[in-house]
Amino acid sequence: MSASSSEMMTANVPKGVNWSYAFKEAFTTAVIALALLCLLLGVTTEGGQNILIFKPARLAFAVFLAFVVRFLVVVQKERKAARLEAERLDAVAGIQPKKRRNWFERAEPYLQPVLFFLMAFFPIVLVTTLGGQASTKWVDNYGIVIMIYIMLGWGLNIVVGLAGLLDLGYVAFYAIGSYTYALLAQYYGFSFWMALPVAGVMAALWGIMLGFPVLRLRGDYLAVVTLAFGEIIRSVAVNWKDFTGGSAGISAPKITFFGIPFNASDEGFAAKFGLEFLPIHRSIFLYYIIFGLAILTAVVTLKLKKLPIGRAWEALREDEIACKSLGLNTRNTKLTAFAIGAMFGGFAGAFFGARQGFLTPESFSFEESVLILATVVFGGMGSLVGVVLAAIVLNGGSELLREATFLEPYIGSDPNRYRLFVVGVGMVVMMLWKPRGLISTRTPTVFLNERKAVSGSLVKEGHG
Amino acid sequence: MSTADMMTSNAPLLQVENLTMRFGGLVAVNSLSFQAAKGDITALIGPNGAGKTTVFNCITGFYKPTEGRIGLRHGEADFETGLNAVTASDKASISTEKGSIYLLERLPDFRISKDARVARTFQNIRLFSGMTLVENLMVAQHNPLMVASNFTFGGLLGFSRYREAEKAAKEKASFWLNKVGLYDRADNPAGDLPYGDQRRLEIARAMCTDPVLLCLDEPAAGLNPRESLLLNGLLRSIRDDHGTSLLLIEHDMSVVMEVSDHIVVLDYGTKIADGTPKQIQTDPKVIAAYLGVDDEELEKVEAEVSA
Ligand SMILES: Nc1ncnc2c1ncn2[C@@H]1O[C@H](COP(=O)(O)OP(=O)(O)OP(=O)(O)O)[C@@H](O)[C@H]1O
Ligand SMILES: [Mg+2]
After folding, report:
1. Are A183 and A243 in contact (CB under 8 A)?
2. How does pLDDT run across A290-300, given as a tens digit for each residue?
3. What CA–CA distances, in Å, run from B180 to A32, B205, B238, B239?
4. Please, are residues A434 and B156 in contact by the beta-carbon 8 Å criterion?
5. Between A and B, how many CB-CB pairs are < 8 A?
């Protein structure tokens, strides 16, 4: 009796994977992919001639990709099902299930400090390892660009992640910040540091301007109106030629080191500090400005979250009617979310102007709004760490695509054309894998006895 | 029935006069008048679809009544003269040194909780399910905390005034969590609570706004008999220990008859009875409405009851 019961207590071992089933599934998928893609990818015409050119390499590549992905998905699914079945049998036998956490959940607590140090020392580490010349590209194209998206993601996170207001026109505030800097510099000779607060204030005011008419809108309607707002701002920049320079653009003064320009002249930064002139000086300076601005965004957001205003934003996302019944002025709550979110967008915009030195309305297209929103959604609504991860993956990923020249035989020249495609595929994968975003738990803002994370499945996404 | 006949023991707190609410052609509430007295538990009962929730929505500002006047009194101000004075003015309230009078139908929704101090719960529970129990109760204290944080600026700079206010707010939250027996789960998400606990948490949350009048929409729905008994105790304690009067919609007669001081009965949007639980229990019109007797048979029922 006792022997059999001790036998009973050993946990059930999950069944192995059915390999032939996985192969069959993958093969079927590959056949379907071949049927679907043979005309799309398999043949092209060149230069208007009536000749079909066969492209077996890229067709084979796509079909192979379909095979591998399907294979991996099936194996993963089988494994999970087997594990759940074993756990169920354990539960029936009365064996305490071991708390399983996958690698990602185990890594979560360390992400914040690791990412912070990574961001803080990124240029320094690069310069010391690669040298000043070679690291310019990495700091400029990767570091600064990703940092801008992190900041924009954190700003939009206030509106979308915390207050639950779906804003598809966030790029408008980025544009307003940029143009505020460029125009103030052009007409009144403002420096970057003088224009920075003005850009934030301007964007915040426009955030309120947008907020008022959309107060009563929710969900899809809100999304459409905010999208239109983004397009309106861009159209104004295109069409108000006398003021903004239209699509020809406007120049914005490049960043200086508190008045000392970054150039090779005797008055330049390098000469003044007795250094050899290198473009990396300017890049590092820019990097730390945007790093500082982003950290400011994060610190303010984290502080606000713990204040009544931040709790009101989250409550608004959870249930607007309950908020009203508790005496919360939902109008002001929404407007402050729009204004503060927009303000950070404006700061980032002014920085963008100072980095580019030249602005055209093309930089502020709808695609940009989509990327910023994707960063927030990927990261997990409301999570700051999630936004960092998503910005690295989405922007780092699409920048890396630029480097991926080895793919050219398969997908044609300029792999960067696939940037949005990659974002789209990423979205689909996320929907299947982690529908609530990378970081899907919410940390409570206040606690009585102990702080426990709230599962994402309980957190609402907001109605507007 | 005139105001005098309503014979409520205490001074009136809420006075609803000729309240009518139409949705297109449907008259959900038809010229309803009643009073709720200070220190009383007033129950609003009636069959499904009678218009009870609609009355609540009018009182708490979620619907704008088609017609009618809803007056609320703080303190000892003279109700009638005060009401007439506010109605004649274009304001929503007046204050005298003896107290204030509010016209609820003129106040925007959130001011009804913030200024007039009328709190409510919902028939289909509306908690902030992704927030913890304490957080739910902290949101309810938003307005005083907002002032204490100097509208965020003081809070951002870490002024001690805000820290003290936050501590007090947490204490109040603990008090109410203890009171509804949920203290042990204070840091769990509200969405994880069983149904009965969610109902009690919603009451605790409403009480954290320091209301003079608490409107509960079917608080006993879905509760088991033991939980209903606990609820009776909680409602009485809110009335007796916290000086908050209650307006209660409830189908569970074991709750209504036990705790109410005064009952108003609605049927098809019209008031059919108004009185003490005893009077209501024996009112033939009420019995007929609940049993679904039509008008012809009503006389028979009436005769039987009075016999
Ligand atoms: N917003 C609305 N639009 C149209 N009709 C409505 C609206 N709200 C309520 N009604 C109608 O008004 C009538 C009264 O509804 P109400 O919800 O007030 O009833 P109730 O007494 O609370 O019923 P129950 O006991 O089932 O909760 C119903 O016929 C309902 O369909
Ligand atoms: Mg109802």
Report:
1. yes
2. 999 999 999 99
3. 60, 10, 11, 15
4. no
5. 136
Give the start-end residues of each E strand in A310-369.
358-359
Ligand 1 proximal residues by C-beta, below 6 Å: B 23, 26, 28, 46, 48-54, 123
CATH superfamily label, B3-123+212-277: P-loop containing nucleotide triphosphate hydrolases (3.40.50.300)
What ipTM was reported for this prediction?
A: 0.89
Ligand with an atom nearest the CA of residue B267: 1
Cβ contact, residue pair A325, B191, below 8 Å? no
Residue of B nearest to A443 (CA): B131
Q: Which CATH number fits domain A111-433: 1.10.3470, 2.40.30, 1.20.120, 1.20.1050?
A: 1.10.3470
Tokens of residue A125, six digits: 């580490």
Confidence band, pLDDT 50/70/90 cuts, at residue A419: confident
CB < 8 Å to A305, chain B: none
Instruction: Return the domain boundaries, chain A.
Output: 2-101, 111-433
Query: How far is A73 from A70, CA to CA, in rounded Å?
Result: 5
Q: Is the pLDDT of residue B2 over 50?
A: no
A324–chain B Cβ distance below 8 A for any pair: yes
B140–A contact, CB cutoff 8 A: yes
Q: Where are the domains of chain B?
A: 3-123+212-277, 128-192
Interface check for B188 against chain A (CB to CB < 8 A): the answer is yes
pLDDT band at A2 (very low <50, low <70, confident <90, very high): very low
